[in-house]
Amino acid sequence: MWAHAARVCTVVRDSSVKRAWNYPQSIFQPRTISDAVAQINSAHLGQHHDTIVLHKLKLTAQEANMSAHNFLSPLERLNDDVLALIVNALCTVDPYERNMKQLSLASKRLRTVCLPILFEKARIYGNSSSHLNIPPASWPYVRTMVIDDSFATTVGYDMDKLHQTLPHLVALRKIVFDDCSMGVSWMDLQLFLTAPRVRMLEIQASANFLPQDFSFEGNMPLLPFTEFIYSIDDPGHLNWYELRTPIPIARWCYMSPLILSLHQTLELLHIPAAMAPVSEMATMDWPCLRELKLYGPGHFGSKDAVVFAHLCLRMPRLRVLNFDFLHRGPSSQTLIWPSDVSFPTSFEHMEMVCLHYPDPKDMFYSHLPSTLRHLSLIDCPRYLHFQNGQAEVIENYPRPVLVAARDLLHIFKQMSFPIHSLVHLEIAFHADGLDRALFNHIKEDNADIESLVIDLMQNLSVLQALCHFRVYLDLPDDKPRSTVSHGEHRSDERRHHFGPLALAPPSCDNYRTELFSGIGDNRFPYQSVVWLAGLEEM
Questions:
Q1: Whole-model pTM?
Q2: Which residue(s) pair with 203 in the sheet?
Q3: CA-CA distance, 375 to 222, in Å (whole number)?
Q4: Do the Cβ atoms of 214 and 178 come closer than 8 Å?
Q5: Residue 459 and residue 475 in contact, taking contact as beta carbons nearer than 8 Å
Q6: Is 515 helix (H, G, I), strand (E, B) or coil?
Q7: What superkingdom heads the lineage (predicted)?
């Protein structure tokens, strides 16, 4: 019996209650059976008491949390996803992040949400070693690093801190060299590649900047870049209202050796058309490339059309093709695939195509797949620029040929899928008597087009899914922009031009149409809001 009582006391002593932690060990050594029973009962009573105390503590904690929640602002009660959306929207309207910084100081919770956005981009000024320090608190959030001014690793700056910091920037994905007067060298890239997850490289330079070609030191390494963007200030963005010759543009990109070395891994490539090593690129395979953009003024003749066909043949996974350049030379239209050239290729992954001044004889359109969702065949720069006789500005450019409605109809009929499967369609053409047939072809079978950009107005009531409709106007009574002050609207004179818009689809009842005058980027709204139902506000 004594042994049994001792075992019971041992169980009690080793239990979770352990009320005897503040008592001598002798208390757990009963002298009689009654003492043992008394200790057991006391232990059970203590366990019950501790359970009550613990329950009260839990209730107190819950009440404290509820009380704290009641003191939270309505903004802080939102979940993290909604707060992140609000913070991102705030960045859009406040590019200098003044309001963002104030918001981040409001509370610990709001600061936690703001930190990834506040520290998303870090800027380094190469002309001052004091600007090379990145605060440790921002390290987990830096995703983009901009290297400004005349940065170079060979200038003699103290780079120790930057060398020590870069391996800790685990979120860093993109490196941007902004107007580096000495160009970007292999030593510069080696420094920033010490960050473990860098994948994107962007270089911003002037249009006529042409330093010594980029070169590797020693054997060509395997670089991690999957995206490369070469940006220039826009010499092709001419002021068409001033008689001014365009800034000359360099005919070669000094980073071409790097671009060509990345042909096996690049997924995105943006480069000025005049600088692009198109001929060299057409001799290499680009198995991973998904997006190709050639932009700005370029010199492309008929022989280059075959080069473009060869280039597309080397890019089997291409999804986005954007030839956003203005032709110079003998050709005034964008021709990719001549009718007398045959290539065994497929564009089965293509989703977006943007071509300026398309050639209706181009066989490229007959190879586009049903996966295509965005098609833009436009006049850029605007055709009207070439009607004003500004020879001093456009002397180096041939007058482009704007397609007619019959030409677009021919292009659409070449396609192996119905045009109404597109989500976004943007076209520019002049009327030739078949414009109604063109519209009928677009809107047949209740087209699912959601965004339509066009320069002619027709009955759009059959486009049941249409949500956005933008019109660039060239009305008979339109006057040059210089004679019309901003905000001046001659709605009475123009009202009769908008009759067909009254037959808009039901999906546009709660949306607005944007009506613009002018050409190029100098368009301005005739009327800020024109409701499609009734046109009373016109």
A1: 0.71
A2: 177, 230
A3: 36
A4: no
A5: no
A6: strand
A7: Eukaryota
